[in-house]
Amino acid sequence: MPFVVTEPCIQCKFTDCVAACPVDCFRDGPNFLVIDPDECIDCGACVPECPVEAIFDAESVPEEWAEYIEINKKLAAVWPSISEATDPLETADSWKKVEAKEQYLHLDETAAAALEKAPYGPPPKAPPGDAAADASSPPADGPADEAAPAASPPPAAVPEPEPEAASAPPGPAQAAPALAESPTIRVEEPHVPSDPGPTESTAPPPRVEGAGMARKVARKVLPRRLRSSLKKALGRS
Ligand code: SF4
Ligand code: F3S
Fold first, then answer.
1. Which of 6, 144, 170, 202 is deepest in the core (most CB within 10 A)?
2. Which atom of ligand 1 is nearest to the CA of 20?
């Protein structure tokens, strides 16, 4: 079985492995190396040379990095050969103990096409959580929110704030149409209490039709006592 370079190599690329390989089967990416499985003679000479223990026999690759078997195969088909050791990446020391680095694999256009993923990179020079170094690092030139490998996306882009009009509480002029158009919110008519009218105790007694004329006649023809009785009978006590 061929040997495989796995995640710890990302952002380090010490290349000690290259010097040990008798058949030049390493392939060179921007921040990662791979082994061409068709060239590897399974000698194992490269394994102890790697400072971050990134190289495994394909049968012994840790389960979490099993996908690197396929990654090595696909990227070896598009990346150029490297036959001599070079200086490590300037990010090597600060990134060598960082875990979960797959999201920082720099995928140029060719590599992205080979892996059927979006291009990504270069990643930030500072590892995650290194605030001081973050401030001095140039931004990645790739679309970080699109370049994520499917299993592990790159650092999430800062979500854009909602437009002010959408987030601000609506004023009175906005609220009415918004509610009126809503399929779930019903606009209630303002409640106007009905006038119960005068109560029985305070309401004036009903007037008898024709009472006015009767009073005028009575005032002229009836004695005072009879007029008083008639007034009571007509509801004017
Ligand atoms: Fe090269 Fe041997 Fe390592 Fe394969 S196992 S990459 S042949 S040094
Ligand atoms: Fe990578 Fe280790 Fe070789 S870091 S380049 S696999 S020595």
1. 6
2. 8
For residue 157, the number of C-alpha atoms closer than 13 Å in the C-beta half-sphere is: 13
The DSSP bridge partners found for residue 44 are none
Stretches in the chain below the pLDDT threshold 50: 134-153, 155-211, 214, 217-218, 221, 236-237
- pLDDT attached to residue 133: 52
| Ligand 1 atom at minimum distance from 2 CA | 4
pTM over 0.85: no
Beta-carbon neighbour count of residue 229 at 10 Å? Answer: 13
| Ligand 1 atom nearest to 44, measured from its CA | 5
Ligand 1 midpoint to CA 201 (Å) = 110
- Spatial contact of 100 and 152, defined as CB atoms under 8 Å apart: yes
Indicate which residue's Cα is closest to atom 8 of ligand 1.
21
Say how many C-beta atoms besides its own lie within 10 A of residue 213's C-beta. Answer: 9
Question: What tokens appear for 139 in the block?
Answer: 């931004």
Residue with tokens 């078997």: 69
Looking at residue 88, its pLDDT comes to 98
What's the pLDDT score for residue 234? Answer: 58
Report how far ligand 1's centroid is from the alpha carbon of 214 (Å): 131
Provide the β-strand partners of residue 5: 55
Ligand nearest to the CA of 20: 1
CA distance to 79, 85, 132, 213, 229, per residue, from 73 (Å): 11, 21, 37, 119, 122
Residue 70: strand, helix, or coil: helix
